[in-house]
Amino acid sequence: MVTLAEVAQHAGVSASTVSYVLSGKRSISVGTRQRVERSIQELGYHPNAGARALASNRSNIIALMVPLRTDMYVPVMMEIAIAVATTARTHGYDVLLLTGEEGPDAVRRVTGSGLADAMILMDVELDDERLPLLRGTDQPSVLIGLPADTSGLTCVDLDFGATGALCVEHLAMLGHRDIAVIGEAPAVYERHTGFAERTLDGLRSRSRELGLRLLHRPCEGGYDAMAVTLARIFDERPDTTGFVVQNESAVEPLLGLLRQQGRAVPEDVSVVAVCPDQVATQASVRLTSVAIPAQEMGRNAVELLVAKLDGGGTDEVVLIAPELTTRASTGPAPGKS
Amino acid sequence: MVTLAEVAQHAGVSASTVSYVLSGKRSISVGTRQRVERSIQELGYHPNAGARALASNRSNIIALMVPLRTDMYVPVMMEIAIAVATTARTHGYDVLLLTGEEGPDAVRRVTGSGLADAMILMDVELDDERLPLLRGTDQPSVLIGLPADTSGLTCVDLDFGATGALCVEHLAMLGHRDIAVIGEAPAVYERHTGFAERTLDGLRSRSRELGLRLLHRPCEGGYDAMAVTLARIFDERPDTTGFVVQNESAVEPLLGLLRQQGRAVPEDVSVVAVCPDQVATQASVRLTSVAIPAQEMGRNAVELLVAKLDGGGTDEVVLIAPELTTRASTGPAPGKS
DNA sequence: CGACGGAGTCGAAGCGCTTCGACAACCTAT
DNA sequence: ATAGGTTGTCGAAGCGCTTCGACTCCGTCG
């Protein structure tokens, strides 16, 4: 293993000079710099991460806590994780992958040991038990998701309230008056993951303003659950012509069942989904949808974190504006122009 | 920040004693041990990761390289990553998430800097450019996936050859003679990711042995591509009654299109999938499938790695035996008993 | 022309931990 | 009783790096 000292010797300078060449924290003459850089190349030198962390009190590692459960939005999580990792690298950071398994203890462990300089938390619950710990430490952190109380925290998320409103507006504009919302699995609501409730709030308040009738039904993924839910919906509101689906794994079942019942999309009923673009374009009907900007969330989170680590950066909540893309699953309400 | 020295002082022992209590590398009297442990508790001590890494030359970190592209099997990758992370924790390791973006450089960087003690590589290509580096270092590594030449390497993977054979056997047993294979997207074959080819080999050789006619067609995910592929298949082999699907995102399109054409599953045609159980059970027809044992692969990889790190453990290739679960998508070939 | 300040370099002091050798105390077998 | 082992503890020497203060040159300003 090549050390700083060996590079220094090879280049005929002192160790500290090599260090300053590497960090750029003091000015170095062009000649010296080049000599040192050549030595680094020739010897194939890589700074030792542990020694660096010890001396500088910085590990250049960002911890990313992903949820342990894989019951929802897995591709979104993965996309976020990858976006976080690649963005972090462009800023010179590596990413440590923590699962939710350890819960708050992981936060303590990482903070206490100096393993990471900062954390990103995903799948934040409204009243997350990790939050007090984050508030009580001076280690920077960013949440992906929105807890109930955001004071003293930095958060990034899609504006799910606006997302709900946008879906309703789109359907209203097309003349739909009776709208059904296929929600997330009941477990998601029980867990108080904020996004589901915020979407619902947006849907409800905007429908009220626009004078629409809105029916919300939570629903597990899969065909069987969807069949039951759908039957109940048409039972209760036979005039339903608009659907909003949030649960990714309910999308295809819904489309399949509607087809089976002889209800054409978009001629008889319209469907708006909240899902990644990939799902929207690969479904059996190309779906009008509000995209979940996974990459953007990951990238934003890292950039906010890096800003904090560099001394700037304040606590703030970044809500990404939703964008609705019209595809083939929505059209005018039947009986309207 | 609490240090070892402070704990030592608080407990009235020397720093080295505290260190030995922590590592268990020398015997410590019961009394001393308890005193030290109490001090650790009271002061809330966490060993500094950097200092530890520097002194012991061990970071207790395993690097996990995931593919950058998210065009396939994303949920499987995520499940593997999570299994790796949780298993690693039970052995006292943390996981560093690397994306394929940096390519071989990432291997050099991590090996050179002592950031990680070992690596796990996913999405290994048949002739992967990272392999020479792994062979040339004494840092332990495990591949998830199988390259062309496994000499000097440790690998974990599903036995895709046996998987292909198993699918064919199942269909043959039910009396199907003409079988079509809906393969991965052409890009996957071009990239020479081994698993697709190994599956195909298994399918082919076993069909030959059993005297079946096998037609293989690569296929992108999505409805449009599937429609074209399916039309061609029935055009070329009108008597096709058995399907094997490997591409997760082709499953639902295939089922939808068959339904649309009035071909009932499993009465008219049978479908076997190679996919995670979750996909198989959530599809519109509960699919007979060979599961992709993501968790098992992740767990195995970590355990092989830990064995190597602990001094034992040799290079070996672990092929996980495939298991076929019969569900509602396969039945006797029409016209047979 | 002497004082001053910036540029460029070096030496040394740690950062918090592990680990080696030493040693005292005690126990056992001769 | 003495040599030889064990057991439990300590002190000190690093691990490879960053960073602070100090020093030497120069060029510049009053």
From TrEMBL, chains A, B:
Keywords: DNA-binding, Transcription, Transcription regulation
Domain named HTH lacI-type: residues: 2-56
UniProt xrefs under SUPFAM superfamilies: lambda repressor-like DNA-binding domains, Periplasmic binding protein-like I
InterPro entries on file: HTH_LacI, LacI/GalR-like_sensor, Lambda_DNA-bd_dom_sf, Peripla_BP_I
Taxonomic source organism: Streptomyces vastus
Top-level division of the source organism's lineage: Bacteria
Membrane-spanning residues: none
Entry protein name: LacI family DNA-binding transcriptional regulator
Gene Ontology MF: a single term: DNA binding
PANTHER family: LACI-RELATED TRANSCRIPTIONAL REPRESSOR, LACTOSE OPERON REPRESSOR
Entry keyword annotation includes rRNA-binding: no
PROSITE patterns hit by this protein: HTH_LACI_1 (PS00356), HTH_LACI_2 (PS50932)
